[in-house]
User: Fold dTTP/UTP pyrophosphatase from Syntrophomonas zehnderi OL-4.
Amino acid sequence: MQEIILASASPRRKQLLEQVGLEFSCMTADVDEEAFYNLHPGDLVKKLAWQKAQAVAGRTEQNIIIAADTVVVLDDVIMGKPLDREDARQKLTLLSGREHQVMTGICVVNQQNESHSTEFEVTKVWFRHLSNGEIQGYLDCGEWVDKAGGYGIQGLGALLIEKIDGCYFNVVGLPLSKLYQLLYKQGVYLLGGEAPNGVQGWN
Ligand SMILES: Cc1cn([C@H]2C[C@H](O)[C@@H](COP(=O)(O)OP(=O)(O)OP(=O)(O)O)O2)c(=O)[nH]c1=O
Assistant:
């Protein structure tokens, strides 16, 4: 039977897929993310999602693979995960009082019919003006580790944010509604067999 594999080590992505009742297993996919930082952010996140899916496709057969990649974009400059606390402090200082974009690329590969779909989603995020003390306090909680831009909207990072425009789940690392549409195209019907708006199902 065809299985669904999440090509990710991210506990957030696993949790989000569980939220929509999908049965799946996880395999990790290591790719050199910074090698492509010269690309347009939308192309970058799609390319990285595709590469993560391919890294897992080399180790499994006949399955459906889901992969994603998330970056923060400020003034067209891509921010990945902070290297260390000082880097996180610099990132949060740059984001303070400003609007930025969170972009997530998603890729769904169907190994059985050798097809794939890749898309990306953008969410606008506005940070409050943060005092140096607030930034220090946030850094102390350690949440910045392993998160694009050095914050997590799903945790204490919520307090840094004034408002967002777009998909919340996209910021956490997996735009669920868009993913649902890609999965539908591959014959995975999370809401029954009726096609979502805008999607031409082929089954
Ligand atoms: C902006 C933001 C990012 N993030 C996370 C989502 C991603 O996990 C991470 C960006 O790193 P990614 O490289 O997209 O993913 P990852 O390394 O965590 O996991 P994998 O490659 O194995 O799938 O930042 C949050 O959890 N909350 C946020 O508010």
In short: The mean pLDDT is 94. Residues 8-10, 12-13, 28, 33, 52, 68-70, 72, 81, 102, 146-149, 151-154, 157, 171-173 surround thymidine-5'-triphosphate (CB under 6 Å).
